[in-house]
Model the fold of this input.
Amino acid sequence: MERKDLKSLDYGELQQEMERLGQKGFRAKQMYQWFHEKLADTPRDMGNLPQSLKNQLTEEYDCTNLEMVDVLISKTDGTRKYLFRLEDGNVIESVLMKYKHGNSVCISSQVGCRMGCRFCASTLGGLTRNLRPGEMLDQIYKIQKHSGERVSNLVVMGTGEPLDNYENLLKFIRMLSDEHGLHISQRNITVSTCGIVPRMYDLAEEKLQITLALSLHASSQEKRKELMPIAYKYEIHEVLDACRNYFEKTGRRITFEYSLVGGVNDSDRDVQRLSELIRGMNCHINLIPVNPIKERNYVQSERRVVDNFKTKLEKCGINVTIRREMGRDIGGACGQLRKSYMDRNKGEGQE
Ligand code: SAH
Done:
């Protein structure tokens, strides 16, 4: 039987385990605090636990404890990119971004991804596996400890499709926003999806206050299919209906992400069609100048094209921001740190 990961157990589950081990009720509370408030790496770090229990926990359970393989720190804006190794040897990446309103962490939700978006580096090797709740939490815990900065905001926009790892994602969000954990407000949590329609409807029923970001990236079904294979499964209007439903059920304004790809989705016609598509919706558009990856020949839209795109959308009464490129001096965004690490190590293995 697979060993349970202590860091992935919520409070109720930890209580059950302690009961099973014949431990007193307060042990579960102590341990939960150690893991999720005091950010202990493993039971061995839990000062007030009896040695016999620490030994038993170490022998009979797993405990996520990410190993930091690499950290790149930007000299210009303090952005930090982290590469972590999991117990099974896989690597994932996470980012810390410092803003005036607080510190935001971007985490990965899967090892690799099977969604196949054409411009994205994280999907090139396909999906390896889902991350457990403890592995999502530990990215934030390790970053908070390493940087000494309190993390106040979270975006699930790293490698992986969070709604393709739905149960683990929900448990993770509940544990992260729990008052007995880091207690990050759900209003400060954003989950980005390529548009898995049934899961978007499910999410609307979960009574969460999180923001849903939809990767739209195109102004028509035809163009979306060219960039995002998921569009073959869920048609653009179905996805937008799911967004409308999310707003109706939760009252949370939708964010649309639109990566501008030079000559592909950045024309005046695109602006016009896009504004028609989302007319009347309570939303916000985040324009992302595409980060070119060497495996594909997509290029960034020119700066004046990006600015023009923004101005024209604003004229239609739409809220727009252009995503600031953080950590420019430490190179490659969107899964490219992990990708370059894997390419390097593959090369070494073959020699
Ligand atoms: N799977 C989720 C979250 C992961 S990526 C999703 O699809 O939303 C977070 C955002 O970055 C998505 O909008 C994604 O489309 C975008 N993205 C990925 N690679 C990119 C690149 N090279 N340039 C610009 N945006 C990219």
Summary: The pocket of S-adenosyl-L-homocysteine is lined by residues 115, 117, 119-120, 157, 161, 192-194, 215, 257, 259, 288, 290-291, 293, 334 (CB under 6 Å).
